[in-house]
Each structure stands twice: as structure tokens, then as C-alpha cells.
Amino acid sequence: MRHFLKDILREQHLTHEVAASRCQVSRAYLTQIINGERRPSPQVAKRIAVALGFPDTWYRLLEDNNQEECEKHA
Predict the structure, then answer these.
(1) Would the pTM count as exceeding 0.70?
(2) Are 48 and 23 in contact (CB under 8 A)?
(3) % pLDDT > 90, the chain
């Protein structure tokens, strides 16, 4: 799960529906990305990052979920 993305949505008070609309992706696809079920293409990751306000770290959306969990526990 991409916890940082959930945190961004919570901080901005965005539903998955509104966030998906801003990112120009479907709500289902965004939910799958957040849940770690899908990994976006670099182009989509950049678009999501710009729309949600983290353009300098867009690459975090491409990271493997296991890597995120390891970093969290380090």
C-alpha cells in the first residue's frame, strides 16, 4: 500500500473520486494504485504527482510496495 498517497489525499480532504478526476484517471485505477495493486506508467505517475502536489517525488509511485515497507521499518 502506498501510505504516503493515502496521507496526501487525507491532508487535502480529497475523496478517491475527486482525486482521480484531478489526475485524469478512473477512480478504480487510482484506488488500485493507492492499494498497491497496480503500478502506473511513468507518464501517469508524473500526472498524479503534479495534480496532487508532489511533482519532485513522482517516482515514489513506481516503487515496489515491499521497498516502501522496508523503508518504513528501517
Answers:
(1) yes
(2) yes
(3) 78
